[in-house]
């Protein structure tokens, strides 16, 4: 990619919109202790599809310079968000998914939401650094993590939360005893 093309891609509408959505997600979850479980579920129900859509349209093929790659979220920051969410969710935190071998796997909503937070926050912080190479690393890493980390977590958590929000209106015949998808 030519330097001018690279700058155009890194400041494109798709990237700037992803920054906006990622920032909103981070700000909300940094204050998660102020919200009820229902408010967090409602927020995530609306935000997860937007995050996924913005992640899906991020530009691909950016060649980052690994020397400019940095992570910013500390283990302590991640733990604070995770513990706050786990406390709020209580027994609603754990749900079950089928992995690629169709084995049942236990999953945590608070873990998924904290992981997504970490990926979004690292993206925002790295993108804010001055050199264009930092911005390239931020976008390339977030696009890669969308494909193999936070994209699937957003979908799995959204499916579970949808079931929790609408549990009274979902036809129970829709689910068999063997496949409750963690609802």
Short summary:
With 183 residues, the protein is mainly alpha-helical. It has helices spanning 3-10, 13-30, 37-56, 75-89, 109-127, 132-165; strands at 94-98, 104-108.
Shape summary: globular
- Proportion in β-strands: 5-15%
| H-E order | HHHHEEHH
Reported CATH architecture? Up-down Bundle
**CATH level 4 superfamily:** Protein of unknown function DUF5063
The SS-based structural class is mainly alpha
- CATH first level: which class? Mainly Alpha
Average of pLDDT: 91
What would you say this structure looks like, in words?
With 183 residues, the protein is mostly helical. It has a single domain, classed as Protein of unknown function DUF5063 (Four Helix Bundle (Hemerythrin (Met), subunit A), Up-down Bundle), CATH 1.20.120. Helices cover 62% and strands 5% of the residues. The chain has 6 helices and 2 strands. A two-stranded antiparallel ribbon has the order 1-2. Strand 1 and strand 2 (104-108) form a beta hairpin.
List the helices and strands and how they pair.
Layout: H1 3-10, H2 13-30, H3 37-56, H4 75-89, E1 94-98, E2 104-108, H5 109-127, H6 132-165
Antiparallel strand pairs: 1-2
Helix pairs in contact: 2-3, 2-5, 3-6, 4-5, 5-6
Supply the key terms.
mainly alpha, single chain, 62% helix, two-stranded antiparallel ribbon, Four Helix Bundle (Hemerythrin (Met), subunit A), 183 residues, globular
């Amino acid at each position: 990619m030519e330097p001018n093309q690279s700058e155009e891609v890194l400041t494109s509408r798709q990237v700037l919109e992803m920054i906006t959505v990622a920032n909103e997600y981070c700000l909300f979850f940094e204050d998660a202790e102020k919200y009820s479980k229902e408010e967090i579920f409602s927020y995530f129900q609306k935000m997860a599809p937007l995050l996924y859509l913005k992640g899906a349209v991020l530009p691909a093929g950016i060649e980052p310079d690994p020397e400019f790659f940095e992570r910013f979220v500390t283990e302590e920051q991640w733990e604070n968000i995770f513990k706050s969410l786990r406390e709020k969710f209580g027994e609603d935190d754990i749900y079950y998914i089928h992995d690629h071998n169709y084995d049942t796997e236990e999953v945590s909503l608070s873990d998924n939401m904290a992981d997504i937070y970490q990926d979004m926050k690292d993206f925002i912080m790295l993108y804010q650094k001055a050199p264009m190479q930092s911005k390239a690393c931020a976008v390339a890493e977030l696009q890669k993590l969308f494909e193999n980390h936070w994209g699937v977590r957003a979908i799995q958590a959204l499916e579970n939360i949808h079931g929790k929000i609408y549990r009274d209106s979902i036809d129970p015949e829709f689910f068999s005893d063997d496949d409750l998808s963690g609802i």
